[in-house]
From TrEMBL:
<dbReference type="Pfam" id="PF07262">
    <property type="entry name" value="CdiI"/>
</dbReference>
<dbReference type="InterPro" id="IPR037891">
    <property type="entry name" value="Cdil-like_sf"/>
</dbReference>
<protein>
    <submittedName>
        <fullName>Contact-dependent growth inhibition system immunity protein</fullName>
    </submittedName>
</protein>
<dbReference type="InterPro" id="IPR009888">
    <property type="entry name" value="CdiI_Proteobact"/>
</dbReference>
Length: 182
């Protein structure tokens, strides 16, 4: 990688605000992927994705989350890539392609089968506060983790310097408190 992924200060002079990762638990796997952040999180086409077995331990999960956080980007509106990532992409097509890929990974044929028992988790590194916040969501209504009808129910915070096992344990605690999205 020729590009600096530390992103505390972006190449165009913008200061980094935060980085985001989704670490979702499906019945057949964990999906941990870096996001492009700006007041929301979108899958990063240049990011990283980890697919772990459902029996992965806290250290494996923490290591994958830390790796995904190190590959997450913050794209400010003045950044040259902002329009391509946020304005030129069609949300419905992205969601359908994303769901199709997840159904293939899970080996299921319907979205209902994919999301049954799944839990959505957002992990955010706030560099200004030197902490990592973990939010597991409980769905009341709506189809996806990011539905407007979700409530954060499992919350954990760890220092940005936390080890992989500490982060993985905090993630599992938040996941246990967070409700199922199906």
């Amino acid at each position: 990688m020729s590009e600096d992924r530390s992103y505390h200060n972006l190449p165009n002079g913008d200061a980094r605000e935060h980085f985001s990762v989704t670490a979702n638990a499906f019945t057949k796997f964990y999906l941990i992927e870096s996001k492009v952040c700006y007041r929301g999180a979108l899958p990063d086409p240049e990011g990283i994705r980890h697919v772990l077995p459902p029996d992965a331990d806290a250290e494996q999960l923490g290591t994958a989350i830390l790796d995904a956080l190190s590959h997450a980007r913050f794209i400010h509106p003045s950044h040259p890539d902002f329009d391509a990532l946020f304005k030129e992409r069609k949300a419905a097509e992205l969601v359908d392609a994303y769901d199709a890929e997840l159904m293939r990974l899970a080996g299921v044929k319907t979205k209902a089968s994919l999301y049954r028992g799944a839990r959505g988790v957002n992990v955010t590194l706030h560099s200004d506060w030197d902490e990592i916040k973990i939010y597991a969501f409980a769905r009341r209504k709506g189809r996806y983790f990011w539905s407007k009808k979700t409530d954060a129910s499992g919350k954990e915070t760890v220092p940005a310097s936390a080890s992989a096992i500490e982060l993985g344990e905090a993630y599992l605690r938040a996941l246990a408190k967070g409700g199922s999205v199906s």
